[in-house]
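Quick one:
INPUT:
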C-alpha cells in the first residue's frame, strides 16, 4: 500500500483517498511521518498548488507536534531535578522541531517560486509559524529579513506581500505587550500619612512601585520604538520598489 499510494500521489497528488490510506498507515506505525513529508515535497515540485497535498502536510505536522504539546503540559507541574531531567530529554525534540520548521520554510519558498501568487503555499507557511514558532520574535524577524529579497524579485505577488503583512502584525502584537503601569495609582499614594507609624515604610514601598512603573514605561517606549522602526523599514522597502517598478498595483496596495 505504501508503494502503490506513493505512485498514485506522484501522478495525481489531489487523490484524497490515497492520502487517507497513508494517514491510516501512519497511525498504525507502518509509515514514518518524515517519509510522508518527503513524498509531499516531491509531489509539490510538479504540482506546487495541490490543495490536498498541503492539507495532508498540515495533518502530518500535527502528528509531529503532538509530543511537544504533551511535553509542554507535563513540565508545567514539575520542579527541581525532575524538571531538569525532563528538559534534557526534551532537547532532541526541540532540535527536531527547529529542523522541521526550517524544512517547511524551504518547501514553501520552492512552491511559491514555481507558481505565482501560490495562496496555498503562503497559507501553509503562515500556519507553520502560528503552530511551530508562536511568540518566537527571532523567527519572525528572520522571516521578515529573508523575505526582502524574495518580494523584491516578485513585485507582483500579492500572496508574498500578504505574508509580510502577517509577519508585521505578529511582531507588532508581540512587541506591544508592555507591562501594566497602573500598580502605583495616585489614589493609593494620597491615602498614606507619613506621620503615622507605618507611613515611612509605606512611602518607601510607593517609591519602589514608582521605580517599577518607570522601568515598565521605559520598556513600553522601547517596544513602541521597535514597532515604528519596523514600519519605517517596510515603507522604505516599498518606496524603493515603487520607484523601480512604478506600474505594479501590488506595491501600492501593500
Amino acid at each position: 500500500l505504501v508503494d502503490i499510494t506513493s505512485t498514485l500521489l506522484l501522478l495525481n497528488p489531489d487523490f484524497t483517498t490515497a492520502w487517507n490510506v497513508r494517514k491510516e498507515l501512519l497511525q498504525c506505525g507502518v509509515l514514518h511521518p518524515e517519509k510522508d513529508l518527503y513524498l509531499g515535497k516531491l509531489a509539490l515540485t510538479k504540482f506546487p498548488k495541490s490543495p490536498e497535498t498541503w492539507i495532508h502536510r498540515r495533518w502530518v505536522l500535527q502528528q509531529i507536534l503532538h509530543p511537544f504539546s504533551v511535553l509542554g503540559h507535563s513540565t508545567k507541574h514539575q520542579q527541581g531535578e525532575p524538571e531538569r531531567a525532563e528538559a534534557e530529554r526534551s532537547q532532541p525534540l526541540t532540535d527536531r522541531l527547529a529542523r522541521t520548521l526550517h524544512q517547511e520554510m524551504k518547501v514553501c519558498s520552492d512552491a511559491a517560486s514555481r507558481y505565482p501568487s501560490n495562496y496555498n503555499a503562503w497559507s501553509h507557511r503562515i500556519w507553520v509559524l502560528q503552530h511551530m514558532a508562536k511568540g518566537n520574535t527571532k523567527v519572525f524577524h528572520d522571516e521578515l529579513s529573508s523575505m526582502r529579497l524574495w518580494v523584491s524579485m516578485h513585485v507582483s505577488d500579492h500572496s508574498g506581500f500578504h505574508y509580510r503583512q502577517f509577519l508585521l502584525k505578529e511582531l507588532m502584537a508581540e512587541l506591544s505587550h508592555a507591562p501594566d503601569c497602573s500598580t502605583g495609582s495616585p489614589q493609593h499614594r494620597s491615602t498614606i500619612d507619613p506621620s503615622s507609624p507605618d507611613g515611612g515604610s509605606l512611602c518607601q514601598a510607593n517609591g519602589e512601585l514608582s521605580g517599577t512603573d518607570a522601568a515598565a514605561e521605559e520598556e513600553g517606549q522601547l517596544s513602541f520604538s521597535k514597532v515604528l522602526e519596523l514600519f519605517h523599514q517596510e515603507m522604505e522597502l516599498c518606496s524603493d520598489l515603487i520607484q523601480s517598478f512604478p506600474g505594479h498595483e501590488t506595491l501600492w496596495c501593500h
